[in-house]
Amino acid sequence: MLRGLTGAGMGALSGGEELIRLAGKYGFQSVDVDALPLIEKLGEEGAAGLLDEHGVSIGSIGLSVQWRAGEAEFLEGLQRLPDQAAAARSLGCTRCCTYILPSIDSAPAHFMAIATRRLRQCATVLGAYGISLGLEFVGPHHLRTHWRHPFIWTMEETLDWVAAIGESNVGLLLDAYHWYTTGLGTDAIRSLRAERIVHVHINDAPDVPVEQALDNGRLYPGEGIIDLSGFLNALHDIGYRGPVAQEILTAEQPAESPDQLAQRSKAGFDNVFALAGLPY
Amino acid sequence: MLRGLTGAGMGALSGGEELIRLAGKYGFQSVDVDALPLIEKLGEEGAAGLLDEHGVSIGSIGLSVQWRAGEAEFLEGLQRLPDQAAAARSLGCTRCCTYILPSIDSAPAHFMAIATRRLRQCATVLGAYGISLGLEFVGPHHLRTHWRHPFIWTMEETLDWVAAIGESNVGLLLDAYHWYTTGLGTDAIRSLRAERIVHVHINDAPDVPVEQALDNGRLYPGEGIIDLSGFLNALHDIGYRGPVAQEILTAEQPAESPDQLAQRSKAGFDNVFALAGLPY
Amino acid sequence: MLRGLTGAGMGALSGGEELIRLAGKYGFQSVDVDALPLIEKLGEEGAAGLLDEHGVSIGSIGLSVQWRAGEAEFLEGLQRLPDQAAAARSLGCTRCCTYILPSIDSAPAHFMAIATRRLRQCATVLGAYGISLGLEFVGPHHLRTHWRHPFIWTMEETLDWVAAIGESNVGLLLDAYHWYTTGLGTDAIRSLRAERIVHVHINDAPDVPVEQALDNGRLYPGEGIIDLSGFLNALHDIGYRGPVAQEILTAEQPAESPDQLAQRSKAGFDNVFALAGLPY
Amino acid sequence: MLRGLTGAGMGALSGGEELIRLAGKYGFQSVDVDALPLIEKLGEEGAAGLLDEHGVSIGSIGLSVQWRAGEAEFLEGLQRLPDQAAAARSLGCTRCCTYILPSIDSAPAHFMAIATRRLRQCATVLGAYGISLGLEFVGPHHLRTHWRHPFIWTMEETLDWVAAIGESNVGLLLDAYHWYTTGLGTDAIRSLRAERIVHVHINDAPDVPVEQALDNGRLYPGEGIIDLSGFLNALHDIGYRGPVAQEILTAEQPAESPDQLAQRSKAGFDNVFALAGLPY
């Protein structure tokens, strides 16, 4: 597995370039940054050179297409997707991810039909450029009732959705926080085939009843109570070898500098990988 | 367009053979009967001969696969589908239909995902045998709250579902009662391309507020208040040339004999087609 | 049906704007021009205004994606497709077409597999913007052996390919010259459902043995020996109501001015539509 | 990886039951037998019990659908597929395989289009029952010209075909003989993701120029010159954990009894797995 960083939890980053430098400095192997702005700024060669220089690859880009909005907005986003996918491909990135809100304001069955068609269209475009689409189910209980109607939030529902979309390059983004807040154990991971997992997020949860764990109340790996050792071992055992990227959503920006936060993240990763008995 | 009959509204029929005979006797051109039992009883040649003798074709078979049930039941039904499709094909039938309950007990978004995948699987099997799958949206207001959660019931939602299923042989079953109870006008029909319509049901509604029109409170064509003239003309104008099959769901079986009911149906069709100015 | 023009056969046109003006001047209702360059030059409002002013719509854009080339070139083209599709959509165009060379240099089975996947990807993008993809089979005998291996050139093969691609927005571009040079009669057209036809080309063939009719030896409608009356009537009878666009490929640019050629084209259309007994 | 047997190379077997018994007796973990006839003879419980008793699972069933024949024959086969798939599923089998003839008599591009659609239909049915479809490319040189036109025979072409079929449950059957006769090395295997491999065949080739290795001239593993150690190690390294099933096609039935041949097979597997340094 690759140790990865996202911008979430890294404080006031000046941009993707800083994240790449910090990742390299503290021994991370992948970063989740969007490829197109990087190339627009540095050129394809420059961007590839920067990644090489710091020994990191791009783990995943984010799906920028607004698939939850009106059709016009969706189509505008779809217009930009091939450029983003081509940029990712040119830097060797093979993943693109989006998350699923567990509740929505619009009628859930109708929205599911629309979103299924839209995500299939996105997956087809991404697939042309060799990129998989990962869907992240979102577990925190408070979000299940935040909007008017429940949508979906379990791994099983998300796998059923992946089957409904029906493209071979669609799978899960498995996030430790959502795995924990939906009450899953390691057997749930062991029931998966590794190829169903497009991407992995790691983070930790405070010692509060699981129903009270807030989406933006996440901790750095090893600082909380999630069984990350079981999480990582189950992923390793089923053969997952992709990135495990830290994503720490918090109510307020942490006070430390990005460099200090990267150092803290490294300590967390060292800790949980050591506890898991997994090679670093 | 072909004038058609279904068993619904024909009283205590002894079976498909009687429906075929009555259809022929009263000038109907198609019947909705399942092809497989007919062939199992009469042989393929016998069944084709019976249809020929009475000058009728099979408009549509019903989708017998339980796509709303548990997975085991769904798969059992799917096992029988190719035989049913092959039987239909051997008698020249190119349509298979199912209806959508406007409310359900299970979680709507999750069920939509499962049902999308299942109906795609059904459509693929049907498509191999040259058969289209028609989805009937169901309009009566009381059914929208009959089960725990709203599902979908409008034409627009159903078209979005057809797009989500994503197979080229899936379209609408347009039923006059559901067209009426969902408040559509002729412009809604005129907005469709004919090929999106797999099958059509005709019937009429009592003179009560539309919110009170019950699913099993239907009348024979021309005996109620639906603008069937507009309905038929809009279908004709967009180029629909398939069956228009009478389907009369009632709370109690009508007292008349099947022969009397077929005669009454013929009178209704004569009436509404004449009013519509459409050739008979 | 809509009387349409393409640039082929119109001489030394200065561009799409001139074609639009000439179409309007001589009573044509559609033109095949690419929407994106028009919008880039005139703005969306300007382009729409120009079409309105001359009473013409865009019949079809051309598929610019190089689906016969190497993968890199294909992907570059795919990157531009959403912009082209969005431009077409914004001007009300719902068709995009490409042709199939009847022979190829690469191994035919392998190329068919690659092209099937690529055209599905194109069709998915186009479909998102409400646009259908028409595949034109190409009949002239000399092209069947022009490259090393035979590929496909009959209507039946092309329909089988449409089924292999498997997207609901893919169908045929039916060209009178290819209909004629593949030896089809009106029954072949009558066997089609109108929705399988995305677009139609009209032109005529010289009075030479059909095996000697050259792809770039086409005549204006009514100046040759193709049974255009049968062709148009069959299309009309199955319910085709889209554009019938003139496409005249010739070895040398005709000597007349675009205006004279548009006038000559109008005379041809008047002639063949009158012979066919079809409303103008 | 699971050590597996097929009937090919086991002499005059009385049927699937004998293969199961011999597999168990000589330490094999999977057998390739069709599930439906086994269940028809022994009942589902009896069949499952027999497999359990001998400690073997079913590696793969064969695709019985005639996808290379005329449409009527194809559809007849498709009618039986759900029963076969359901039977396989009920015994825990998740694979179904078919092979690709490297040359054919019909026009290759057209046949590729037809076969793509047919295999997609088969894959959809199989997928409903949780079964993957493996396509076996066939390498021996003499078969490339045995029928009139070349079709496809390389791994790369087959992967392109898998992409054209476009269903997520379709992948490769990788056979050591075809890997060898198409000139592939271990890097070709290492370029694959394990999930693209549905099933594996093992066997060996005589010490003749590779162009002269006949399809029915195969040897038992370890008795020939194929680098089976490299083959197995590459499969292991990319994470393949499914069956590796012996398939020995010979011009004449071997003279030994099935028991002797199973013993000889066991010796071959012991030998090549030991050389490969892989756990037994």
TrEMBL record, chains A, B, C, D:
InterPro entries: IolE/XylAMocC-like, Xyl_isomerase-like_sf, Xyl_isomerase-like_TIM-brl. One of its GO terms (molecular function) is isomerase activity. Signal peptide: none annotated. Residues 21-256 form the Xylose isomerase-like TIM barrel domain. SUPFAM superfamilies: Xylose isomerase-like (SSF51658). Gene3D superfamilies: Divalent-metal-dependent TIM barrel enzymes. PANTHER family: HYDROXYPYRUVATE ISOMERASE. This is Sugar phosphate isomerase/epimerase family protein. It comes from Paenibacillus chungangensis.
